[in-house]
Structure formats: structure tokens, C-alpha cells
Here is the input.
Amino acid sequence: AYGGKLKTYLQLQTKEAGAYSLYASLTIFCPNAAMLATLAYGAYLAMADEMQGDDLYSFVLYQQTLGSAFQYLGDIYSGVSAALGAADKVFELISRAPKLSIAGSLAPPPGKFHGAITLENV
Here is the structure.
């Protein structure tokens, strides 16, 4: 039973790693591909005297700023998703009833336990 659960956990973790790899590669590849396309088209326009070089430079800076803003949005979404998942697990653990009873025969009777510790032969 435990081995089966471990295999299921491994399969889920493999899927999660694949999804995260796809997400990470797209967030790295897409902005760079857009920058390359912008520079290529801008160079074409500059060589055809349809655009000034300084206008292209300004546009590229604006594009980088916008790309960074979108990347931060993705990072915020990932962080919020992770926090919500962790909070859900914490509330699940808090509301879970223990399988073993807390009372036992090894516990000292109430009133006789004072918390004093004595170290001998140390």
C-alpha cells in the first residue's frame, strides 16, 4: 500500500515538474523571441529609412519594461498559489482529529507535574 502511494506521488511530482518546466521555458523563451522579432523588424525599418534608430531604442526599452511587469505578475501568481496550497494544508492538519487518544497511563497526574528538570551524572 505504501509503495503504491509512493508511485502515485512520484507520478504527480513528475507531472508537476513537467508543467513547471513548460511554464519556466515559456516565460524565458517568449520575451526573448518577442525581443528578437522586434529588433529584426526594427532593423529592417531603420535600414529602409522608415524609422529612426533612437525611436527603435526607445521602443525596445518600453518593451522590456512591459515584459518585466508581466513576468512579475506571473511570479506573484505562482507565489499566491503556493501560499494558498500551504494554507490549505495547515487548516487541514489543524482540523484533523488525532488517531491516538492524548490521555494515557504514562502521563503524570495533574498537579504533580511542575516542569522541574534534574540532571544527574552529567
